Amino acid sequence: MKPIRILNVCAEFAPLAKSGGLADVTSSLTAYLTSQGHEVRTLLPHYSIINAEVSSEPAALGPADADLGGETVRYAARRHADAAAHGELFLLECAALYDGGIYGSGEREFYRFALLCRAAVELCEALNWTPDIIHCHDWHTALLTTMVAAARRAGGRFAGTQTILTIHNIGYQGIFPAHMLAAAGLQALEPMLNVDDAADAQINLLEAGIRSADALTTVSPTHAREICTPEYGMGLETLLQQRSDRLQGILNGVDNEYWNPATDGWIEHNYSKETPADKQANKQALLDELGLTTGARTPLLGLISRLVGQKGTDLLAAVLPDLLRQQRLGCAILGTGEPTYVAALHRLAKEFAGQLVFVDAYDERLAHRILAGCDLLVVPSRYEPCGLTQLYALRYGTVPVVRKTGGLADTIRHFDPQTGRGNGSVFEHANAQGLHWGLTTALDWYADSTAWRQLVANGMSEDFSWCRQGGEYETLYRKLIEERRIH
Ligand code: ADP
Ligand code: GLC
Question: Which of 25, 167, 306, 333 to probe ligand 1 with, by most ligand atoms within 8 A of CB?
Answer without folding.
Answer: 306
